[in-house]
Amino acid sequence: MVDRQDGGKGRGGHGLLGGLGDVTTIAYHETVNDLQDPAWWGPGPFATRDWFALLETRRTRPLYATAREGSSRVLLPLNRGPRGLESLANWYAFTWQPLLSGPAAPRLLANLARDLRTNHARIDFAGVPAERDVTGILVRAFREGGWRVFSEAADTNHILRPAGRPFADYLATRPGRLRTTLKRKAKAVQTQIATTFSNEDWQAFEEIYAVSWKPAEGDPDFLRRFAIAQSRKGHFLFGLARHDGEPVAAQFWTIENGTAFIHKLAHRQDATRLSPGSVLTAALFEHALDAAGVDCVDFGTGNDAYKADWMEETRTRHRITCLDPRTPRTWPALARRIARKLVPAARGG
């Protein structure tokens, strides 16, 4: 039996009678405050209740779609966007994925996908990881739920798996030009590493970022609040490089569950000749590998060439669009996507 609960504004509506056995409860919520049980949430920086609570402080219109049966649970953190539902995320998130637990989770996800068609005609998921078959699970469930689903590779994630190597052994395998740069510039740049947030360090980071090669920070207050929260949890890692006593490069990392996440990095554009970013990255890698003993270093999204100097593997991030073919307003988008798939086939003969 499927019971679609009505718990107030933004939730519930009707019940669907299924076969005998456990009851599947489907419910919709507008805030993480309705989902206090830690069992709903996942590990890592971008799957926790605190992460989504922080997103709720921005201009978002959340919809947390949930399904539960016995010990199995499914949670889709969504946002009401201009074209329909979309992943509840922002540009600081490395990934977005459904939060699944328990043996019945794939079936529950298909039930939830089917129920979402009651009031929604389009859902766009972005930043979906390919590993652990997350993309495949999501695609299959929404197709089973009656949606037309289109998945495409949209971004690249660079990672390193040290496999127990100490930093010295890892560094010996880096490109020769990088190792030469580190030898030549290390004496001119002094590095320091902190594992707790400090206003002074963060101010230095913001000042460096303002005169770096990077565009203006999208939401500096959000990033600062995220960094403070990570420090309180004991996950914070921060590096600062100085030349003649003046800060010239800064990086913000976190370490959690054996993975080091590289969130932000910047150096003063007028200090490029010193390669302070490379020297600081090496110092943080040494800490992550030798002091923290991480199993993975995650360089986030983006296929920047310099990432290949430090990393050894890439993973794909997918964009998934789900359209309800019963709804006329989705037909133009549906036609465009079908046409894009037909063109390569026609060219191939």
- Average residue pLDDT: 93
Largest sheet: 15 strands, mixed
Indicate the overall shape: elongated
Determine the structural class based on helices, strands and strand pairing.
Answer: alpha+beta
User: Would you list the SSEs in sequence order as H and E?
Assistant: EEEHEEEEHEHEHHEHHEEEHEHEH
Put simply, the count of helices is 10
Q: How many structural domains does the protein architecture include?
A: 2
Low-pLDDT parts are: 6-20
- Estimated share of beta-strand residues: 25-35%
User: Which range best describes the helical content: under 10%, 10-25%, 25-40%, 40-55%, 55-70% or over 70%?
Assistant: 25-40%
Number-wise, the strands total 15
Protein name: GNAT family N-acetyltransferase
GO molecular function, one term: transferase activity
Organism: Aurantiacibacter spongiae
Keywords: Transferase
Describe this entry's structure for a reader.
One of its GO terms (molecular function) is transferase activity. This is GNAT family N-acetyltransferase. Residues 178-307 form the BioF2-like acetyltransferase domain. This protein is an alpha+beta fold. Helix content is 31%, strand content 30%. The chain has 2 domains: 2-156 and 325-347; 162-311, Gcn5-related N-acetyltransferase (GNAT) (Aminopeptidase, 3-Layer(aba) Sandwich). It has helices at residues 49-55, 105-116, 134-144, 167-172, 176-185, 199-210, 220-232, 276-291, 307-310, 331-347, and strands at 2-4, 15-16, 24-29, 62-69, 72-80, 85-87, 99-101, 122-129, 148-160, 190-194, 236-243, 246-256, 259-267, 296-301, 313-323. The longest helix is centred in the last third of the chain and has 17 residues, at 331-347. Mean pLDDT is 93; it is low at 6-20.
